[in-house]
Design goal:
Blueprint: H1 6-17, H2 23-38, E1 43-51, E2 54-56, H3 59-64, E3 72-77, E4 95-99, E5 103-107, E6 115-123, E7 126-128, H4 132-135, E8 150-151, H5 153-162, E9 165-167, E10 169-175, E11 180-186, E12 191-193, H6 211-221, H7 228-238, E13 243-244, H8 245-252, H9 256-268, E14 272-275, E15 280-283, H10 311-321, H11 341-347
Antiparallel strand pairs: 1-2, 1-3, 1-12, 3-4, 4-5, 5-6, 6-8, 6-10, 7-9, 10-11, 11-12, 13-15, 14-15
Helix pairs in contact: 7-9, 8-9
Length: 350
């Protein structure tokens, strides 16, 4: 397992940020690093990283290498999730192959055929480099916000280089035909993290949602308006039929009052509802589905190759005509797939 020290991280960030990385920014990075390491969660196993066929010791080495233009990459789990007790809520895999067009292939540990998916990353814990001059006119109550925390792997690497931004943890999201698989990556220790629900919430209480709902959820979170705790609570809440603040506090290891505060913020934003009789919160799933447009949307070309890797175009086309966006066949009532059965098999999403 490759662990990146705070000194190594500071040196790499200084090369990216240049003069903006003053003593003020260095102290902020060190403080953020120590706070993250102190909250470290249980890991499933170490990861190996390669980009364009070249191996890197960590994701930070990829970000620091200006020649690492992302066209393909691979994450390999040295200890497959099927062998770890920490992987109860995770989709088992041996390696994940990522492509520059935003698609991916998830290879199961049993050697079965890979599963095609659409890949996105969601920024979790991070440090946005701020010099003393940057923060001088800004109020402490209004910390800087990144426009979008959600995008392709290439967009994530570009953001880290340009901001500059130091990620400590990211969620790799794979949208499969029936569900979304979420893998949280500890970049400091180059490892796969266990799901926070492991050992704290019965697996039977999990309700799997279609990838179209997960896509809407992830885009909402990716706007960056929710606190980290509220975002995590919302993810767990969506994959359940209702949880109490006590349940959520047990999952995330905090106090109930903090969870209640985060959940009230979600209720105010109409992402969740509270049932006073049972003292439970439930997600408003309709908040994460595409809204119907008042006018007829412009038809989407059925021959564009981007449709195979653009979730939003697939959803828009299907919702507009209730037909498969690739072949035009009518979809079944209440579809749980983005494509019809024939196109799903041809594209290889099943």
């Amino acid at each position: 397992m490759t662990t990146v020290s705070s000194v190594e991280l500071e040196e790499g960030t200084r090369r990216l940020a240049g003069e903006r990385f003053d003593d003020y920014a260095a102290r902020g990075l060190t403080r953020a690093y120590e706070e993250y390491v102190g909250r470290r969660r249980r890991t499933v196993g170490p990861l190996s990283v390669s980009v364009n066929g070249r191996s890197y010791p960590s994701i930070y080495a990829v970000i620091a290498d200006p020649k690492a233009s992302f066209t393909s990459g691979e994450l390999r789990l040295e200890e497959p999730t099927a062998r770890s007790p920490e992987s109860e809520f995770l989709v088992p895999f041996d390696r994940i192959v990522l492509h520059g067009d935003g698609s991916a292939e998830l290879h199961p540990p049993d050697g079965a055929a890979p599963r095609r998916a659409i890949a996105r990353v969601l920024l979790r814990e991070h440090y946005l480099v701020r010099s003393r001059a940057d923060d001088a006119p800004r109020s402490a109550s209004a910390p800087p916000r990144i426009p979008s925390l959600f995008g392709t792997v290439e967009q994530g690497i570009t953001l880290c280089r340009a901001a500059p931004l130091v990620p400590f943890e990211v969620a790799l999201l794979l949208y499969l035909a029936e569900e979304r698989a979420r893998f949280e990556l500890d970049l400091v220790h180059t490892s796969l993290l266990g799901d926070p629900r492991t050992g704290r919430l019965a697996a039977a209480r999990r309700t799997r949602r279609p990838s179209r709902i997960a896509w809407g959820l992830d885009r909402k979170i990716g706007r960056g308006y929710l606190s980290l705790l509220a975002a995590r609570c919302l993810e767990v809440l969506v994959e359940s039929n209702g949880l109490s603040s006590v349940d959520l506090a047990h999952v995330f290891g905090g106090v109930r009052e903090s969870v209640d505060s985060a959940m009230q913020a979600l209720v105010e934003q109409k992402y969740a509802v509270f049932d006073p009789r049972t003292r439970t919160y439930r997600a408003r799933l309709e908040a994460f589905l595409p809204r119907a447009e008042p006018s007829t949307p412009t038809p989407v070309s059925l021959v564009r190759p981007e449709l195979r890797t653009s979730v939003q175009e697939l959803i828009d086309a299907a919702d507009a005509r209730a037909t498969c966006p690739l072949c035009g066949k009518p979809l079944r009532a209440g579809p749980h797939r983005l494509l019809c059965d024939d196109c799903t098999a041809k594209v290889g999403l099943s």
